[in-house]
Design a protein that fits this description.
The protein folds into five domains: about 120 residues, no CATH class; about 210 residues, Dna-directed Rna Polymerase Ii 140kd Polypeptide, Chain: B, Domain 6; about 120 residues, OB fold (Dihydrolipoamide Acetyltransferase, E2P), CATH 2.40.50.150; about 45 residues, RNA polymerase alpha subunit dimerisation domain (DCoH-like), CATH 3.90.1800.10; about 50 residues, Alpha-Beta Complex (DCoH-like). The longest helix is centred in the last third of the chain and has 16 residues. Strand 5 and strand 6 form a beta hairpin. The protein is built from 14 helices and 34 strands. The protein has about 600 residues and is of the alpha+beta class. Helix 9 packs parallel to helix 10. It has a six-stranded mixed beta barrel. Strands 5, 6, 7, 8 and 9 form a five-stranded mixed β-sheet that branches. The chain has a five-stranded antiparallel β-sheet with strand order 10-14-22-21-16, with no helix packed on it.
């Protein structure tokens, strides 16, 4: 007898397992059983697994019988005429959905040419094994799999037109490319996904060569002339929000220019952009520290005695200011209400972004890199016909990464630009390389995509021929302007007295154990001494019991909590974090005894 499990639970036994499985599959294909059912017979263990649960990943496949697919030319014609739908094909048992379980017993062919009598299913198209973003990579079958993954991920981070009604939306961290273009080399997925309605890149002229070492380690060289003509220019939008919150006791926040009596009042200069209603006007150029929305809140702590106290009526300042390192122009102001009916103010800031050294660019093949230098148009190399590249790509990025599709796209894009047409680069079904080469040759160019080029500075001809063509490049959301950060002195945390963390909080740059090791290797001992005392503090220690003593500020005296007054107490220098852990040991009833030795 063979055990049967439904959704992982034992439900009974069957005598003829293979007959049972065949019967279930047949009934499912006849649409008697739900098509959400999948079944697998494990002969070695003598078990049948039936799955019909939710949340399983399943994929559609064409059923094959006796080496021939059930989907015929007649069906395809009916689909084209819209006489049949996808659902009809599933109901008629021509296409079925398999999950990971039933795939174990299936033998799937990629294409019709591969079919043998042993095959049970056939892929609708070899392209369907990839997701939407991976399918957008042209000539994907010429790339190493890891790079295809990277190319897919990179496209998700590219700037473009993410939505058409962006002007009336308040989204967090929005980046918009000013003049996005449709790629010259496309795949079938570009048409299916209507990519021309939301493009996210630009067609650049790319030359593969080194440029004075400025494009080593994946860096790229950009043409300043191209940037001035709009290459990679984008806009960054970010909203700021303030709402009038209600507190217990009927108190409420007030949006408006705070009075000078308010606790924490800034300077008049900080409020200079606010209008009478306490909200900034559109078009104001603001920088960090400027108040965008003026707001005051009731005092934080109210006790029963406070109503008799005159000072308690002071409200506190809680305006929305521009964060550390931010700047821009006020783009849009929205005044509305939240769910509770309280006033809600949203202000959107706009900041134009022009490509600079350190911004990240990538092709669709995972060949990402930052800008290493921006070169004057006059200093860039040029071809015999006067073509100047927009971007110079390092040849060292190709051998180890094996992204042959990157090179194929270059020569195909060149052909597309010269021939005035789109090149089909669909994975497993692209235009043949030989055909593209022949077409390029017929237009009077070298078939291998190389050209004689000249040094932009000296005018001398390069000894080597340079591989140059058109390519779809994308600007990624990782921009220097969002990441650049430095500080000298600044805010510290209350608990550890160490600098705060993160760019938004004006935090410090952490030096860890490994960074310390590099200083040690350099012999930079004074630098270590200077860097590792961010939370230096002086504490009194009792020399008798080794416990941290108490300093009475009012009476200007020290005493030990254990030994009392008549003991010797010494001030020592240590990290506040160490003092903190000693206190935490005490809370666990552990006695952390400090044994002091003289330095001399």
């Amino acid at each position: 007898m063979t055990e049967v499990y439904l959704n992982g639970k034992y439900v009974g036994d069957v005598e003829n397992p293979q007959e049972f499985v065949d019967h279930v599959v047949t009934e499912r294909r006849k649409n008697v059983l739900t098509n959400n059912l999948n079944v697998l017979y494990n002969e070695e263990r003598g078990e049948i697994f039936v799955e019909a649960g939710r949340g399983r990943l399943r994929r559609p496949l064409i059923i094959v019988k006796d080496g021939k697919p059930l989907l015929t030319e007649k069906h395809v014609m009916q689909l084209e005429k819209k006489e049949l739908t996808w659902g009809d094909l599933v109901k008629q048992g021509i296409i079925e959905y398999l999950d990971a379980l039933e795939e174990e017993s299936a033998y799937v062919a990629f294409t019709e040419d591969e079919l043998t009598p042993e095959h049970t299913h056939m892929d609708i198209s070899p392209l369907v094994q990839m997701g939407v973003c991976s399918s957008l990579v042209p000539f994907g079958d010429h790339n190493q799999s890891t790079r295809l993954n990277a190319g897919s991920k990179n496209q998700k981070q590219a700037l473009g037109l993410y939505i058409a009604n962006y002007l009336i939306r308040m989204d967090m961290d929005v980046n918009l490319l000013q003049s996005p273009q449709v790629p010259l080399v496309r795949t079938i997925m570009h048409d299916i996904a209507e990519y021309d309605r939301h493009p996210s890149g630009q067609n650049l002229i790319v030359a593969v060569m080194s440029y004075k070492g400025y494009n080593m380690e994946d860096a790229t060289v950009l043409n300043k002339g191209s940037i001035e003509r709009g290459l990679g220019r984008s806009t960054y939008y970010r909203p700021s929000v303030a709402e009038e919150l209600r507190y217990s006791g009927g108190l409420i926040d007030t949006v408006g220019v705070p009075d000078k009596e308010v606790k924490g009042y800034k300077t008049e200069k900080d409020y200079r952009f606010l209008e009478e209603d306490g909200i900034i006007y559109p078009g104001a150029a603001v920088a960090e520290g400027d108040v965008i929305i003026g707001k005051s809140s009731p005092p934080r702590f109210l006790s029963s005695m406070d109503e008799y106290n005159l000072a308690s009526n002071l409200r506190r300042e809680s305006s929305v200011t521009l964060k550390h390192g931010e700047k821009g122009v006020i783009d849009f102001v929205l005044i509305t209400e939240n769910e509770e009916g309280n006033k809600l103010v949203q202000v959107r800031i706009r900041d134009p972004r022009i490509p600079e050294v350190g911004d990240k660019f990538t092709s669709r093949h995972g060949q990402k890199g930052v800008v290493g230098i921006i070169v004057n148009h006059t200093d860039m190399p040029f071809s015999a016909s006067g073509i100047v590249p927009d971007l110079i790509f390092s040849p060292h990025g190709i051998p180890s990464r094996m992204t042959i599709a990157h090179l194929l796209e270059l020569v195909s894009g060149k052909m597309g630009a010269l021939g005035g047409r789109h090149i089909d680069g669909t994975t497993f079904d692209a235009e043949k390389e030989e055909d593209i080469r022949k077409e390029l040759l017929s237009l009077g160019f070298r078939e291998n995509g190389t050209e004689a080029m000249y040094n932009g500075m000296t005018g001398e001809k390069f000894n080597a021929r340079i591989y140059i063509g058109n390519m779809y490049y994308m600007k990624l959301k990782h921009m220097v302007a969002n990441k650049l950060h430095s500080r000298a002195r600044g805010p510290i945390q209350l608990l550890t007295r160490q600098p705060t963390e993160g760019r938004a909080k004006e935090g410090g740059l952490r030096l860890g154990e490994m960074e310390k090791d590099t200083f040690v290797a350099h012999g930079a001992s004074l630098l270590l001494k200077e860097r590792f005392d961010s939370d230096r503090t002086i504490v009194p220690v009792c020399e008798t019991c080794g416990i941290i003593a108490v300093k009475d500020e009012f009476k200007n005296r020290h005493f030990c909590p254990i030994c009392g007054d008549d003991t010797e107490i010494t001030n020592i220098e240590l990290a506040y974090a160490f003092k903190l852990i000693l206190d935490e040991f005490k809370s666990l009833c552990i006695y952390p005894k400090l044994e002091l030795k003289s330095k001399y």
